[in-house]
Amino acid sequence: MNAAWGPPAPKSQRTKLLLSLAVNFATRIPGAVGIFLILPLLRFDLGVRGYGFLLGALALGSTSTFLFGGFNTMGRRLVGEAHAARDREGEAAGVVSMFAVNGCVYLLTLAGIGAYAAVQPDPGTLFLIASLVSTAAFANTFDNARAAYNEHYVTALFQIVFQVILIGLAFLVRPIRENPVLAALAIQGHLLLASLVAGVHLVSARPYLLGGAARRAGWIARGGFRIGIADGLLAASLGLSVVWMQAGAPASLAGWYATLVRLFQSFAVPVMLLLMPLSSYVRLGWNDRDPGRQDRILRTTAIAGLGYGVMASTALWGISVFYIETVLKLPGPASLPVAFAIFALFAAIIACRSYSTIAYVVTDGARIARWITGGILVSLGIAVAVRGYLAQIQTVAVYAALASVVLLVAVLAGLAGQCQRGGRVSGTRTRQ
After folding, report:
1. Domain assignment present for 1
2. Is 298 in contact with 418 (CB distance < 8 Å)?
3. Domain tally for the chain?
4. Phi, psi of 118, rounded to the nearest 5 degrees
5. CA 317, 40, 241 angle in degrees (round to 5)?
6. What's the whole-model pTM score?
7. Which residue, of 164, 195, 206, 265, has the greatest Cβ tally within 10 A?
8. Residues 60, 128: contact at Cβ < 8 Å?
9. How many CA atoms lie within 13 A of 372 on its CB side?
């Protein structure tokens, strides 16, 4: 580890971090194979409309989970601080509180999915696919609890195993690819299975976690709601745009956009695979770092995130031309400004998430959360206002262009606020 990141954390924590990073990135190998091998098969086995329905249902499920991220972030922070202080009672309270809050949110997501599915042509299938995503997001609470201990590599190992099994079955057994629910299991099932198995492993190794009380649920709910609205609203708006396109745009264009968003999420995953264990590692020794090093960590994260976002968006443009449009036969928009706005949004999302993932666990994150929430709401409001005058993909482009600017400004505002605070953070640190 270089000087900017280097802790006062013990060597064992660095070993866990490196192991988590290595195994996390190894999970992308079967994932990449699945995307470029299974998606074309699904596209032609399900047909354009069936393929669009599948991706739209998955997007609906992702949209419903937008609050989980904020509560997981606060819970991970709480458990990590207790673990660093060797406070087992605090660890147990943090884990149980995180599950209590996420359990309530999970029930709300199922109700919301059910209400939307009830007025759709195929409510049962839509509900099953979307609720699979929601259930996996709830089970991800186990992963966040484990990440607080800098041990995310355990979940990642299970993900690799289940990915290989499910993708292999989907490739070999055609009836799986012809059924939307089974196809969704092939795409998403490894996340749910890995989280459940890793969760059993977690409580087996630390049985004292089961004895906690949900006394910090209110703290997680208050802080997590602010973060969930900020980052979750961004993810939800992207998912809703897929559902909206699938409902009214030409089937081929809706399929192009849904596939592009799906591929973008795959490109964004490495950022989270890197930053989830890294944020836990940084949190463990954050209070012992000097303000200058704290500032360098946040600046490095923002710059690296923007650089990767630009590279990922450029790669996605190439994939759109040579894979989605050529191999999958799903033509994209004819307008270059429309396409540019969408790809610019992808770059901005990665840059913002890179910064906020670290910032939320080491600072109060209020400034960047306000910028993101307010900016996204304004962008959505303008897009809704002009939707009657533009085609659906053009309306999406208007939102994308506005949101791109908002996200970049939010990162700059967060960095400026950190510099003004001179490294002061919330939590257990004593004011100098």
Report:
1. no
2. yes
3. 1
4. -60, -25
5. 55
6. 0.72
7. 195
8. no
9. 28
Tell me how crowded residue 138 is: count the other CB atoms within 10 A of its CB: 20
Reported as a pLDDT band with limits 50, 70 and 90, residue 227 is confident
Separation in Å, CA 310 to CA 316, 344, 349: 10, 8, 10
Domain-embedded: residue 6: no
Quick count: other Cβ atoms within 10 Å of Cβ 317? Answer: 17
- Burial of 63-83, coded b for 16+ CB within 10 Å and e otherwise, reads bbbbbbbbbbbbbbbbbbbbb
For residue 429, is it within any domain? no
Write the CA distances from 48 to 168, 321, 354, integer angstroms: 23, 18, 34
Give 312-381 as a DSSP string.
Answer: HHHHHHHHIIIIITTTS-----S-HHHHHHHHHHHHHHHHHHHHHHHHHHHS--HHHHHHHHHHHHHHHH
C-beta of residue 355 within 8 angstroms of C-beta of residue 368: yes
Residue 172: Cβ within 10 Å count: 9
Provide long-range contacts, Cβ within 8 A and 24+ apart, for 161-170: 161/194, 162/189, 162/190, 162/193, 162/194, 163/27, 163/30, 163/31, 163/34, 163/190, 164/30, 165/190, 166/190, 167/30, 167/33, 167/34, 167/37, 167/38, 170/34, 170/38, 170/41
Q: How far apart are CA 166 and CA 179, in angstroms?
A: 14
* Per-residue model confidence as pLDDT tens digits over 74-101: 888 888 788 777 888 888 888 899 999 9
Pick the more confident residue, 200 or 35: 200
Domain-located, residue 166: yes
Q: What is the Cα–Cα distance from 424 to 80, expressed in whole angstroms?
A: 19
Distance from C-alpha of 38 to C-alpha of 283, rounded to nearest angstrom: 38
